[in-house]
Amino acid sequence: MKFRPIVLSLIILSISCSERSEVDRRVDALLSQMTLDEKIGQMNQLDYGSVNSEIIAAGKAGSVLNCVDAARINELQRAAVEESRLGIPLLMARDVIHGFHTVFPIPLGQAATFDAALVEEGARIAAKEATSHGVRWTFSPMVDIARDARWGRIAESFGEDSYLASVLGAAMVRGYQGNELSSPTSMAACAKHFAGYGASEGGRDYNTANIPERVLRNSYLPPFQACADEGAATFMTSFNDVNGVPSTANRWLLDEVLRGEWGWDGMIVTDWNSAGELIAHGVAADLKDAAELSVNAGVDMDMMSYSFIGNVSALVKEGKLQEKQIDDAVRRILKLKFELGLFEQPYIDESNAGASDYCEEHLAAAKKAALESAVLLKNEGVLPLKEGSTVLVCGPMADASHDQLGTWAPDGQESHSITALMGLSKLFNVIYEPVLEYSRDYDMGNFAALKAKALRSDAIIMLAGEEAILSGEAHSLADVKLQGAQREFIDALSKLGKPLVTVVMAGRPLEIEQELEDSDAMIYSFHPGTMGGEALAELISGRAVPSGKLPVSFVHSSGQYPFYYNHSNTGRPNQGNETLIGDLPLKAGQVSNGCTSYYLDAGYGELLPFGYGLSYTSFKYSNITLSSNELHSDDVLKVEFELTNSGDYDADEVAMLFIQDLVGSIVRPVKELKRFERVSLKAGESKHICFELPIKELAFYGLDNIFKVEAGNFKLWVAGNSADGEAIPFKVI
Ligand code: BGC
């Protein structure tokens, strides 16, 4: 009996080895028949708008992006399989970022769920829908760490924390790829944008990222490594340069770190024309130079720069690239095509295309994600509102069927969106007067009409926020505030003598201090996707209880960016007693002694901390015990505690474990998330929770640049957010 599992795993191992070698054998057999031009064709990815059957039949593209029409996909595939010399199928790609037709909350919203199983399910559903239309490769997950909300692409990210992004990134990879890549409902995942894109200077998209190697390794790379470890089939290079070297030409990143150190053997694609952009960056003189740099760095496939297709052949002839490099790249591309089962089943069943789009199960999961991603930021005894009461619904996002889908939702159809107005109308007696029609609207002309209607209502629900186009790629803001006249509008609403509930639907954490003060309650729902309105109505009525937690810190002022809770210790840590600008005496003399690191006009800390989120009930953390206070680096620390729902509503709480390494060879973060768990508790119920933390997960790249655990004193906190909890000491010996 005892050796059974070993026998079983040996059998599994030998099966997977023989499968692997079977794929390798087929790849080699095919490769040996290919001309250099055919190989280069496989390394070329073209946009749907730039291809036709002739180009495909001539073997000039290995992959096509952005076609989602099953019939057209079959047509192109037919040209590849039946008309090209070797019949190599195409790999059809698309940005399926947070759902396909059924749109889930934007990734930043999904991060607020702190629910890896739900994120995985969302990705599985996206894969089921997208593959039925013929898409077998998605450019997701995006695991860039985003610490600056001016950067519009923060919407596509999982926020500021490396651990959260690692767990959720890996969950998405599992969801897209399923159990077997060869299943017709599996899509190859693509971890992007490798690397450092979230650190674009000043939050300006595409910009330079200056990240010291240790910071890159300790903070920016871990989510990518988690995706690599999870078996993400592909990686995408980023647009930015890291410390002077654009990622697409960054041999150290692609070849040494990703393939060498991490032992990852998947396929690397450039971002759109990022090989061509090496010219604008000023590291390549022309497209030929760009192709040479990219292939030498380790890139396998060129997205839309035409630099490979036009130049690799000459570069091989001139000896600037070796044919072996081309073979290695093509081997990785063909291997993925074999693994996806494209050679066996290149075509899709057109009659089945979209069969599960918007089905009940998918909509239910999207609604669950919208429910769990909404974060209750304030509640002065107003929420939940009594079902059936009369509510005045207003604001630019109230009936925003397009904008609630958020950025990168190219296949979401607004006709399927349940808007807040639609959802609320089912549960309340709604009076609707938007006043502002869209988020940048300055025209408050209808406010007088609203005022009259407010008299007849029990509460006002203001749906504020950002249009989808104000976040996402190439949509950075210098000032992350509510646009148009929304601030004035909320201020005016707060003076009407009715309870004011503000809901913010946005692609980023906005500067909302004033609006928070003016509102009696506030829910931050990010862009919640197809089912957003139904979820919001249930939260507002108390049919559901808010449980989302902030995956990013909220600041007082945009000027505080970059901002993140897990920052380094300074030599003058905040004491909470800073002199603010209004308190400075006139003709004051210069003083610095005793001062700390802060802004005169914005203070030191955040408006709302990472992990923050209220509920209609309350939770108590008690009896926190550690398995030991002294541990070796190969031990596992068990942190056990009771979590009690001490209020009146059944609800979920996300419990978090943070640590601090008190003395290191380099400056260490003031806190770091190491574990989290979403726990469902009935009113009055207690559950015993245990976080297991292998001490080896306290390792980091220290002064010697070696990844290891440094012995010494630590603190840990178990709490509902990054600012709560009592510190408990422990020691690594
Ligand atoms: C974006 C990528 C995206 C690609 C393909 C680029 O502009 O940066 O995230 O996957 O386009 O659409």
Radius of gyration using CA atoms only = 27 Å
Oligomer: single chain
Number of distinct beta strands: 26
Based on CA inertia axes, which overall geometry fits?
A: globular
Backbone structural class: alpha/beta
| Termini Cα gap | 39 Å
Mean pLDDT: 96
Helicity range: 25-40%
Bound molecules: beta-D-glucopyranose
Q: What is the strand content?
A: 15-25%
Low-confidence stretches: 1-15
Sheet with the most strands, sense and barrel status: 6 strands, mixed
Q: What topology, given as strand order, has the largest sheet? A: 11-16-15-14-12-13
Give the helix tally: 20
In short:
This protein has 733 residues and is an alpha/beta fold.
Task: Outline the structure in words.
The chain contains 20 helices and 26 strands. It is α/β, with parallel strands linked by helices and 733 residues long. The longest helix is centred in the N-terminal third of the chain and has 28 residues. The protein is globular. Bound molecules: beta-D-glucopyranose. Beta-D-glucopyranose (BGC) binds next to loops.
Sum up the structure in keywords:
alpha/beta, 733 residues, 20 helices, single chain, binds beta-D-glucopyranose, 30% helix, five-stranded parallel β-sheet, disordered N terminus
